[in-house]
Amino acid sequence: MSAFFLDWLNLLARWFHLVVGIGWIGASFYFVALDLELRKREKMRPGVYGTAWQVHGGGFYHVEKYLVAPDELPPDLIWYKWEAYLTWMSGFALLIIQYYANARLFLIDPNVLDMTPGEAVVMSVATLIGGWLIYNRLCRSKLINYPAALALCVMALIIGAAYLYTHIFSARGAFLHVGAFVGTIMAFNVFMVIIPNQRKVVASLIAGEQPNPAYGREGKQRSLHNNYLTLPVLLMMLSNHYPFLTGHPQGWLVVALVVVVGGSIRHFLNRTDAHDPFHKYSWTVPVAVVGLGILVYLTAPARTTSEGTVSDAQVMAIVDKHCVMCHAVKPTHAGIDAPPKDIAFTGPPALIRYKPLIMAQAVQSQTMPLGNETGMTEAERQELGEWLNAH
Questions:
Q1: Residue 160 pairs with which residues in a beta bridge?
Q2: CB hemisphere CA count around 56 (13 angstroms)
Q3: What is the rounded distance in angstroms from the CA atom of residue 257 to the CA atom of residue 301?
Q4: What is the C-alpha to C-alpha distance for residues 346 and 156, in angstroms, rounded to an integer?
Q5: Could you tell me which of 24, 65, 178, 334 has the fewest CB atoms within 10 Å of its CB?
Q6: What is the pLDDT of residues 2-51, one digit of tens each?
Q7: At what angle do helices 213-238 and 3-37 cross, to 10 degrees?
Q8: What DSSP string runs through 27-74?
């Protein structure tokens, strides 16, 4: 299949992934906010836990939540599940199209771990499944009675996964896999716990039995985990566009800070929706600000000096060796029909024109060449940076 059709397949899968992902995230945000806004009122129907009055689009809505379930279910009960299922399936399809099919470019970096594409794919699938199994075991241990301790353990699991990925995959592949790792946990929470528990409650009602409230409590716990993981996973999925994140030598630390900042922001929004007194969650503001400040500091580019000793001929020799097989008017790299981002390095003026991008992608990080396929050395990166700084 030509690169043109692969690009279209990638684009359509990404578009679909974005659409269903918005639906899933929107439902998660809405139902958690709704749950926090429920209030007990006079004359509620039997079994109702709380109600909420809402206005949107010119109409008023009155929503009720039952403590376990109503005595009878209507025939038009709406299930929220396909948004989660399709988000994970389309995301995994993108993983196959972008990373598995082009493992040597996007997933493998010989300087990190030299392996075959098959070995890389096996490691990817095994760690995604293993992450869910460990997470699920944690949630069904005695930690379920200690939500804060459980949250810390889940955070440690994610940071551990980030450390592992940065030691087996390329920088881009590692950060993307952290997002896939968390996204798999979130989707499997829906597929393996939340929906099956809801089906058990429905089956009990149909059989005329009293549903077990434990099913609802477990489903709510997993749903809340998904809600808090949403902001970090979104940034992980966008990280490939920002080499100052993926190219950091301590990528696991960057992931840890992203989890802390994202979780703090999500907690601030949730407690605001719950109308809690501000002093009870005011700590989230300094935590998010300080965490973000540390992130900016850690990812700031190192200052370099230039003596102007690298000639035009030397820098073009480096570019010809490592860059122009892709970034040429007519690329020679297999599977690439046109220069990425329409950038062609036709000579020194083109390098100067795209200086910020080259500095970010090939000097201050090792994002380019992809997977360091051509074996670009640190000395060559320094020479390239010296020449660019001199111009």
A1: none
A2: 7
A3: 18
A4: 47
A5: 334
A6: 667 777 888 899 999 999 999 999 998 998 889 888 998 888 888 888 99
A7: 140
A8: HHHHHHHHHHH-B--TTPPTTEEEEEEEEETTEEEEEEEESS--SS--
Read off the amino acid at residue 212: N
Structural domain boundaries enclosing 357: 312-389
Tell me the average pLDDT across 256-270.
95
| Residue 259: alpha-carbon gap to chain centroid | 10
Q: Given the DSSP bridges, would you call strands 48-56 and 59-66 parallel, antiparallel or unpaired? A: antiparallel
φ, ψ for residue 170, nearest 5 deg: -65, 165
Give the chain's domain count. 2
Question: In 3D, which of 192, 193, 210 has the Cα closest to residue 201?
Answer: 210
Q: Which two tokens stand for residue 39?
A: 């209030």
- Stated as kind and residue range, the H or E segment containing 156 is helix 147-165
Tokens at 346, concatenated: 């036709």
User: Is-contact 158 178, C-beta < 8 A?
Assistant: yes
Residue where a domain terminates, one of 253, 272, 299 = 299
Q: 153 exposed, middle or buried (CB, 10 Å; 0-12, 13-18, 19+)?
A: middle
- Cα dihedral sign, 39-21-262-96: positive
What's at 366, amino acid-wise? Q
257 & 319 share domain:
no
Domain boundary among the residues 247, 269, 299 is at 299
- Please indicate, yes or no, whether residues 190 and 324 belong to a single structural domain of this protein: no
* Judgement on whether residues 257 and 317 belong to the same structural domain of the protein: no
Mean of pLDDT values over 274-298:
94
Q: Which amino acid is at 176?
A: L
Residues 6+ apart with CB under 8 A from 80: 27, 31
357 domain-assigned:
yes
User: Tokens 């997993």 sit at which residue?
Assistant: 222
**Rounded to two decimals, what is the model's pTM?**
0.82
One domain, residues 317 and 201: no
